[in-house]
Amino acid sequence: MDPTGESASTAAEPMSPHPVLPAYFDDLPARGPMVDRLFDDTAAHYDRITGLLSFGSGGRYRREVLEQAGVQPGQRVLDLACGTGQVSEAAARLVGAGGAVLGVDPSAGMLAVAVAKMRRLREAEPRTGPFRAIAGGAEALPLSDQSVDVVTMGYALRHVPDLVGAFREMRRVLRPGGRVVVMEISAPANPLLRWPLKAYLRGVVPPLSRWITGDPRSRTLMAYYWDTMEHCVPPSAIQAAMAAAGLVAVERRRLWGTFSNYLARSPKQRND
């Protein structure tokens, strides 16, 4: 038995952020390739269509979250599941030329957009931190132990194969005392908030995305966005997964009942 009272085999089972969604994939192993294809196919439109969801989650909001979490000049930041570099952009401005941002993502299409965006940023604002894109996933980060000061993740936790495994990898690459900052969105528990949000995100945004981009895959992406929100494990389970991975000072900060910022630290004393 482990300290939680579970058997070793049970404790080792992956903790998926949501169950199988038959409209998109038939089993959990099929989810990763499906998600990668979906993001590759929609990378060129991604920033445009996610602008439809910007209930305070734009560039200013991302920067404020990172500032409040303590991201500082000179730090080395890993932006995990960086996508098109929306969080990377905010981090690069905060760490400055003396710091650095590493963007890791399994989608080649999203990384290509991020590289182009971050190149334009550095040309326009030379004092921002340099950016390096790395292909990889949350389950096996292509980084050395204790090599970064901060790990960020913006609205991608619902796509990892194993919550505890992802948080363990974050802890592994963090220097002692390093910070984890995960921004996420979840379906409100209050039905008075939940149903209007669902009507917008599931009923309006997908067809509007299709109309704006002319690409039917954009509709699929935004329908999947809500469906993963609706079926995601509760915030308490995410906090428990962070603690189970060995992170400390775990907390959740909420905004408007749907935005959550999960914060934690790597232990200052490492025993592994």
Automatic annotation (TrEMBL):
Superkingdom in the source lineage: Bacteria
EC number: 2.1.1.-
One Pfam family matching this protein: Ubie_methyltran
Gene Ontology biological process terms from the UniProt entry: menaquinone biosynthetic process; methylation
GO molecular function: methyltransferase activity
InterPro entries xref list: SAM-dependent_MTases_sf, UbiE/COQ5_MeTrFase, UbiE/COQ5_MeTrFase_CS
Keywords: Menaquinone biosynthesis, Methyltransferase, S-adenosyl-L-methionine, Transferase, Ubiquinone
Protein name: Ubiquinone/menaquinone biosynthesis methyltransferase UbiE
Organism the protein comes from: Phycisphaera mikurensis (strain NBRC 102666 / KCTC 22515 / FYK2301M01)
The gene coding this protein: ubiE
